Automatic annotation (TrEMBL):
PANTHER family in alphabetical order: 3'(2'),5'-BISPHOSPHATE NUCLEOTIDASE 1
Coiled coil: none
SUPFAM superfamilies, sorted: Carbohydrate phosphatase (SSF56655)
Gene Ontology molecular functions: 3'(2'),5'-bisphosphate nucleotidase activity; metal ion binding
Descriptive protein name: 3'(2'),5'-bisphosphate nucleotidase CysQ
Binding site for Mg(2+): 60, 78, 80-81, 189
Amino acid sequence: MDDVALARHIAETAGELLLTLQRSGLFSGNALGKAGDRTANAFIMEALRHTRPDDAILSEEERDSPDRLHARRVWIVDPLDGTREYGEGRVDWAVHVALTIDGRPVNGAVALPGVPMTLCSGRPVSVPASPERLRMLVSRTRPAREAVAVAEALDAELVPMGSAGAKAMAVLRGEADIYLHTGGQYEWDNCAPAAVALAAGLHASRVDGSPLTYNQPDTYLPDLLICRPQAADRVLTLLAELRSNPAAGSK
């Protein structure tokens, strides 16, 4: 099985396990989220160690090891992205499985088990046409100030949604046009979504326009822009203006 097929298969199987756990009725709320994190992580780690024993792994739910910094091939996974949404019985949560080579997100899969749907870099989708008014994805609980300011400047509609993976895939699915995040993330939050977005021809970068680079000593990767290519320059320009004049975004 090649890397793309493996990423997809592992993400989908982890998603099926999470759905089974969710439907069992044995857990709810925070307890369900914690059980889901542990269950999905245990499966993904075992699957990757068995099928790719020579590769390194970075998982949100595992103790980090500096050994990964010396590896060319590193799997970066988020066993359950959107733990809160999962615990609440919503559908906007995801499973992220990505492979980086020399820090680049070359392959990835994002499973949306509650939809259900899995998108991966090996099967790039055709992004539906955009409506006349742009739509900006933001956190449903804590929208970032800069994202809201950019949306206002673009006269874009705000679309609240849960996990990072769900938001990024919403752009691919034609449910929105821009996913801008400046509220702080880690590599596992956006590596698989970035790999899938780039494979589909979308723009994916840091908010200063620089490439997304993974397998770094510090796994904190605080900002992200995934959007339709034709919107990227305008969004990046607005962000640069906001950062050079912070007071403009607070009006």
